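B., you asked whether I could sanity-check this one before it goes into the benchmark set. Here's the sequence:
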Amino acid sequence: MLNFLFDSLREPLLADKAAWAIDQICSTCRKTLTVELEAFLRQYVVILSEHTIDAYVKEKVIGGIAAIIQALPSVESKIGPLSMLVQLTKADIDTCLASIQPEQTPEQVEATVDHATSALRCLHSLGKGLQVPDDVPINLEANYSEEAWFWRNGDGVLLQREVSHLLEETRSILGWHSEIIGALCDILRAGYKEHIPGLFVFKPAVTVHFVQACSLKTPELPYVLDTAQAMLGRQSQEVEAEMKQAAGAFMTFLLSVIDGMGGENLLSKWRLNLHTDNSRRRYLKRSANIFKWDLAGS
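And here's what the prediction gave me:
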């Protein structure tokens, strides 16, 4: 069945539905399909080399393959296939960044941003696919020391650093586009709900650095601050001192934003528009939560 679906990815009229079906089947039957993982990866690489599939298809297929990787029995067995998918996506992003030239036309810039955004969405889909399914019980008393060591000190640390460096490089070059900032936030948030350490469960400092690198001119700034708050409520076990330090850094950044945009006058103006602007309502609500967390933790 899945072999037929992979072959269908080459047919423009069938590709989207086939990709959706691959994602659903892989997610639902992930444990059963682990023995087919290498074959699926080979098929995906061959299809990529033919340059016949679009961004949506890539996103769905990567998400499905990631779900199978999540079901592998050991953390060591995941690093190989994860590295392959990261490198494939990194190649797309590197091509986008290398193509940027000062003399580009607006149309060329838009095409570059669209291509980079699609690649980032593939990374986001990879992160979502690696999430433990909601119907799988989580042992809240376990410390997952083996997984934590692997991703913080073992073979996984280099791959995680490579991903975080890729996110930072993309932000530094294309961070003035709202689609890029939104996609970067989504990638960071993919690891926040995880109880178990993994590729996208970055240290709090990664989100702190991302937020601090933003400014008043950064698009999607309310979503950036919403992402900061989401990090403080993440499910994985973290050192309390790191979380308190992150909360303090976020509060300092928030104060600079409020001060730089007019302080109380700005907040008063926003209150007048809360009934029509959901992003601003979320901004104020999340900002208040950041303050409460920091004060409670101090």
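One thing to flag: Residues 266-277, 290-298 have pLDDT under 50 and may be disordered. Otherwise nothing jumped out at me.
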